[in-house]
Amino acid sequence: MKMTFLMIIFLFSNPVMVSNDIIITYKGKSVSTINKADLMVPFLDDPVLDQDKFSEMIEQLEQNIYQSPVDATINDNGAIVSGEVGYKLDRTKFKEMFLSHFYQDTPANLEVPLVEVQPAVDEQLLSKIRKQKIGQYITYFNSNKKERAHNIMLAAEAINNHVIFPGGTFSFNNVVGKRTKERGYLPAPEIVKGELTQGIGGGICQVSSTLYNAIDRAGVQVLERYSHSKKVPYVPPGRDATVSWYGPDFTFMNNYNQPLLIRSKKIGGSIYVEVFTSETVEISPRNVPSVRDMIN
Known about the structure:
- Residues 47-99 form the YoaR-like putative peptidoglycan binding domain.
- By secondary structure, the protein is an alpha+beta fold.
- The chain has helices at residues 2-13, 51-65, 91-102, 123-129, 146-159, 172-176, 204-217, 292-295; strands at residues 22-26, 29-34, 40-43, 46-49, 73-74, 80-81, 86-89, 108-111, 114-117, 132-140, 163-164, 169-171, 187-192, 195-200, 221-224, 251-253, 260-267, 270-277.
- The chain is built from eight helices and 18 strands.
- It is elongated and about 85 Å long.
- Residues 1-19 have low confidence and may be disordered.
């Protein structure tokens, strides 16, 4: 209300005809042309800025130019790969720039003002939390079953290098995302209501189950975990974690005072999951049976 009142006072003291477009540029290229008349509403004898339309315009502009930051990662050779800074619209500065030209009877070119968005995970943090391995687990599968092996690889890549901050939660479904053909997942055998059937993304429950056992060994607080309705061959009985996009999820919370780093990789017919954190953390590990215990 205060801003609208000030605009009205400004109009009365500076009556002008608003007729020229404002061209918005980003990195020197035009991204939008604003017709001033489209953002006006009548008020007495003079038009004023329509705040709702102005807000919608800013929202759309921000969506168009937003560049997500990229977290630092650890590659297959164990080297830290630097992250990248992202960018977003500097709303306060843009509003000031826009309003300074809006009530002038002249055309204007406005270069979008940006604010840096820093990655949540940088090289320094990764270097700190890769020091102590507090949990690990390995499971095995038939690598000749190409579709299932492919799905396992995609899910393992999705959780690899994921960092969970203290008090933060991890959702397997949210991190891995929906398993679809468009995202590269293939039809493969999966258990649904106790029956073996073909489904897009079949096999990823082995990844969630491997992760569950690594997390449990690390003494991390499990929030949500469900077993299959039928025994699975890759973990001891009761040690699996079934997941489905429209059904059960596997979630846990970082109950330590330092971030956790998940490292996951498919190698041949094996899926490895490791959990790391800072060497300053005092862990409370749990005794978790290994796959070898199924054979002995």
